[in-house]
Amino acid sequence: MQDREDELQNPIPKNTVVSAFRDRIRELRRVKAADLRPNPKNWRKHPKVQADALRGVLSEIGQADALLVRELPDGTLMIIDGHLRAETMPDSIVAVLVLDVTEEEADKLLLTIDPLATMAESDPERMASLLKTAVRLFQDILENRSKSARVRRLCQFEFTRET
Fold first, then answer.
1. Distance CA 89, CA 38 (A)
2. What angle do CA 33, 38, 43 make, to 5 degrees?
3. What's the CATH class of domain 23-120?
4. DSSP string for residues in the chain
5. CB of 155 within 8 A of CB of 142?
6. Closest of 44, 32, 10, 40 to residue 103, by C-alpha
């Protein structure tokens, strides 16, 4: 009985190794994107092609990632990562991870998040397999609903190239 009470008080299982790294995520909130304050130090520019691609993913899949923010002394939330998502859907409610970071730490995150992601190398075989799956999914979607001619041509081109 005592073990069950301990489990309820401490949701981390007894044999779990706790990370040596600090957990800086304070909470998950859902807020209106327009209420978020853009970071004036944001150095990234988002071209129209990127914004169009993001709108396409949001239309097809929906929101699948949280924006990173920090809470300012006045209670407002400043964006660390996710500026384009906030700009793309200002009237939507978005998930944000409120981080417990200082302004200096937020600056470091702002500088490093995207560059770190671009350092990843790709596995050509896995990429080809994933592309084949994606092309098949696009084809299924096209059979069930009308899509733009451009998307249809892209899917047909990729599918004939892969087979």
1. 14
2. 130
3. alpha beta
4. -HHHHHHHH--S-TTPPPPSS---EEEEEEEEGGGSBPPTT------HHHHHHHHHHHHHT---SPEEEEE-TTS-EEEEE-HHHHHH-TTSEEEEEEE---HHHHHHHHHHHHHHHHT----HHHHHHHHHHHHHHHHHHHHHS---HHHHHHHHHHHHHH-
5. yes
6. 40
Q: What are the residue ranges spanned by the domains of the chain?
A: 23-120, 122-163
* Chunked mean pLDDT (size 10), the chain, 163 residues: 54 68 95 98 91 87 94 97 96 97 97 88 87 74 52 51 47
The type of residue at 109 is L
